[in-house]
Protein 1
Amino acid sequence: MTKNINIGPLVRLQSLTPRSPWHQCLRTNTNCLHELETECKRKNRSFLVGSCEMGSSVEQSILVTGGAGFIGTHTVVQLLKEGFKVSIIDNLDNSVIEAVERVRELVGPDLSKKLDFTEGDLRNKGDIEKLFSKQRFDAVIHFAGLKAVGESVVNPRRYFDNNLVGTINLYETMAKYNCKMMVFSSSATVYGQPEKIPCMEDFELKAMNPYGRTKLFLEEIAKDIQRAESEWRIVLLRYFNPVGAHESGRIGEDPKGIPNNLMPYIQQVAVGRLPELNVYGTDYPTKDGSAVRDYIHVMDLADGHIAALRKLFDDPKIGCTAYNLGTGRGTSVLEMVTAFEKASGKKIPIKLCARRPGDATEVYASTEKAEKELGWKAKYGVDEMCRDQWNWANNNPWGYQKKP
Ligand SMILES: NC(=O)c1ccc[n+]([C@@H]2O[C@H](COP(=O)([O-])OP(=O)(O)OC[C@H]3O[C@@H](n4cnc5c(N)ncnc54)[C@H](O)[C@@H]3O)[C@@H](O)[C@H]2O)c1
Ligand SMILES: O=c1ccn([C@@H]2O[C@H](COP(=O)(O)OP(=O)(O)O[C@H]3O[C@H](CO)[C@@H](O)[C@H](O)[C@H]3O)[C@@H](O)[C@H]2O)c(=O)[nH]1
């Protein structure tokens, strides 16, 4: 029976074996429903088709690389709430164990039992092997990677080693243990400076820096692997600009050092850790001269991963497919400052500066493909993003650390 898991409708049944008397949910091929029904009746067990949600299908086990990081922690909360069992591997290069403890606190003691954490580095194949050798994973969500554009320009080898070698090790181990479903964290950076907006998934791709090149190469690698071995199912999620935090204010983004990105920077100005925000570029051909991006609430992004997993489990023809995760709306830097001031009641002093080299003028997503094929659409707007970012900042002015 189990050979047909992960295809077709959901079936909930009382275990067929007296040794395990609890209820089970599994996904099965339509053709074997009749067989299953007959067997259940014969053993006087209950049998209900489509009686439970996908997320509650028994203990689908997901490996989340980089799960202690910003997007990882928010996604893990949602995965646990949806009934998945989650294993995190993270080397804590850009995160702290406290973030994982807060995830446990948020989901409560029962769901926490379904979460385990391993400190490990994807560059060491042995660290990945250890996990796969002791348990089966249905799919992997692969967040682990370095993401600072400026640092990648100064030290490209670190980026190629970490992002490329780490991911290749992961694919090798997944193949060895026959786990061939992956959701990969790609980025809108693969569109470079797009010639048209909104960005559509079939646009020509080009990277503008070594970090962007790692994402582009990894998209190509994913496509080649899937082309060669058609049983792989890989979803490439191209995130636009993730911001905001969990509504509880218990988890959020906590970059080490001076933030590179707009919202963490604004947040640190608001709590008094930095004196003012440098606004890079005031002469762009945009509504107010500042650059435009598609900011997306991290909880929407987290839900996008659940939608992508569902797609992987449900669609044997998915192959290797890319989806944009954005809102489809562009917001300028100055508009973002105003929205944050409104949400926080704090004045954000700004300094108008020259453009930041390598920055695109205006980027936002076409969201049609994700809406149509993943059934996912962002719920939150800029006001909610700023509200939740401020709630996190106000409650944790020094992030996960205590004030130094
Ligand atoms: N945040 C963004 O603006 C953004 C936008 C587009 C794409 N992405 C991509 O999404 C992913 C997650 O981003 P994030 O914002 O949560 O970043 P993050 O730095 O907060 O999280 C990444 C996590 O991966 C871990 N990690 C890095 N290298 C590792 C390795 N070799 N082995 C094990 N763990 C490792 C880090 O310690 C960290 O906890 C990254 O791949 C990033 O490139 C992020
Ligand atoms: O202190 C700052 C920081 C940023 N900006 C501007 O704000 C905009 C957004 O910048 P940022 O938050 O750094 O995002 P992006 O440059 O759009 O890049 C982010 O979004 C990409 C697409 O998802 C990811 O690939 C990158 O890793 C991630 O850094 C840009 O115009 C910046 O010049 C400022 O004016 N002042």
Note: The chain is about 40% helix and 20% strand.
Protein 2
Amino acid sequence: MSIDLESRKPVRPRPRIAITLGDPNGVGPEIVLKCLSDSRLMKFFDPIIVGSAEVLRKHAEVLELPLPELQVVGDVPERITPERLVVVDVTGGKAPEVEFGKITAEGGKLAMESVRRAVQLCLDGKADAMVTAPISKEAISLAGYREPGHTEFIARLTGTRRYTMMMVSDDLRIGLVTGHIPIWDVPKRVTRQAILETIEIIHESLIQDFGIDRPKIAVLGLNPHAGDGGVLGREENETIIPALEEARRRGYLVFGPFPADSFFGIGAYRLYDAVVAMYHDQGLIPFKTLAFESGVNYTAGLPIVRTSPDHGTAYNIAGQGKASPGSMRSAIYLAIDIARRRKERQQAAAATSSSAAAS
Ligand SMILES: NC(=O)C1=CN([C@@H]2O[C@H](COP(=O)(O)OP(=O)(O)OC[C@H]3O[C@@H](n4cnc5c(N)ncnc54)[C@H](O)[C@@H]3O)[C@@H](O)[C@H]2O)C=CC1
Ligand SMILES: NCC(=O)COP(=O)(O)O
């Protein structure tokens, strides 16, 4: 292994991806096991499973899925070999019983402590990115966590104030001005500042993480028909249009606000590098309709790389072997791509600054 002279961090031939198993009673461990047995995918990275070896074994046994030989560790080893699957066990030997389809505080705690550990591995440079299998918002709330989901939890753990949930598929990237909040709370959180910040985060991410030079961003309205000139709501005229004018003054290529229904109806999303939606379901309903089995949930704005499948714990099919690994597979591919792109950008910037210093 060589050393990157600028960052002093080891340059690994294959990225190390920390993968959390999610809620032990949902489909998380199943979709992870299915991905691990996909030889095309496994060529591109070294997995570090974070969670519980016992839970992984139980899912493999019940679902009759292949389980590689496990190397259960407290910390990530220097060398990872394809012969043994590294599992960073966070249970201290006390894994909860797997109860398929059941919402439990123990399941929520294991899921969140796995996320905490994976974040630390990324911050310490022991993993290059993390991919999170689904958690249950009810289970984590039962376990006493105050954040509604991964996005907010990881933002807190990494000290990130500016971030957004961005859903990513081949045809559509869509980021949210507001996230996991009740619908009645949306209008007062759709402020000029929040819209501008979301545009900035998405713009930065499109350049840094997706390699798009001059990204074009479409912004949706909040009200039906984007307010119809103020007849169907005032937020467009009072908040969204002024925010877009300010964004244009700052040099962003932003368009809109578009009425959300026809924007998707005529496929206009294909003309832009990303779309900004005002609230969760405005963005996620079209997204999941277009790409449920291949879509990825990406957290833009973090100092680390985190992706996740676009679906949840699917308790209704847990333990039955029916879960599609498609979205999890896309989440792993995207994490690999973004981690590599960020590293290449860092190396290019370091090379430029050292040649400038030398001249
Ligand atoms: N990344 C994450 O951690 C996410 C977590 N959630 C959480 O998951 C829990 C359950 O959420 P729901 O709204 O019920 O959505 P869900 O995505 O778990 O399930 C919705 C429907 O899709 C099906 N489905 C989901 N994933 C599938 C797969 N891989 N293969 C085949 N069918 C699949 C389920 O069987 C169900 O019929 C909630 O607590 C929610 O907040 C939801 C989305 C993402
Ligand atoms: N709708 C996306 C979702 O619920 C997943 O949220 P997060 O756990 O990734 O924050």
Note: The chain has two domains: 13-160+302-358, 162-299.
